[in-house]
Amino acid sequence: MILKGLIIILAVAISIRDILHYKIPNMLLILMIIAKSSDIMLGILSEEQGIWILLSAFAGAAAGFIIFFSASKMGYILGAGDIKYSVVAGYVLGFGGYLWAMLIAGGTALCFFAFMRKVRRMYLNVTIPLAPFISAGLIIMLLI
Question: What is the tally of structural domains in the chain?
């Protein structure tokens, strides 16, 4: 529970930094990896199917890389920090959790764009930080 709280705090810090500076600090991502790795090691030591959690974490990280890297190669403008954060989110949540988190992230981003376009007449060529939406999906999945 403490490790989940730490990951949530780090996700909020990443979002704030991305909103203010359009940067995702590597140190916060590394701390998130360390927190999840500690959780995995505790699961392995207590024999709570830790090896399956580890495999799911690696599958989630791979999915995070493949999805976001492919999107960047197809012409979507994604920063390297967004790709790295997606990989870390996949590692933290595992494969299934990551897919649900990205569905939540996409839904919140869609709602945000629709709201901003309606209220502020914002168009889609404006740069919007992606980390808050990834964090929303990550936090919701951690709390479920």
Answer: 1
Give the angle 8-11-15 at the CA atoms, nearest 5°.
140
Which residues are CB-neighbours of 67 under 8 A, at least 6 positions away?
Answer: 86, 102
Closest to 72 in 3D by CA, of 82, 63, 62: 82
* Domain ranges, residue 38: 2-143
Q: At what angle do helices 2-21 and 80-120 cross, to 10 degrees?
A: 70
DSSP string, the chain: -HHHHHHHHHHHHHHHHHHHHS---HHHHHHHHHHHHHHHHHHHHTTSSHHHHHHHHHHHHHHHHHHHHHHHHTT----HHHHHHHHHHHHHHHHHHHHHHHHHHHHHHHHHHHHHHHHH---TTS---SHHHHHHHHHHHHH-
Q: What is the pLDDT along the chain (144 residues), one digit of tens a residue?
A: 788 999 999 999 999 999 999 999 999 999 999 999 998 888 888 776 768 888 999 999 999 999 999 999 998 888 999 999 999 999 999 999 999 999 999 999 999 888 887 777 666 567 789 999 999 999 999 999
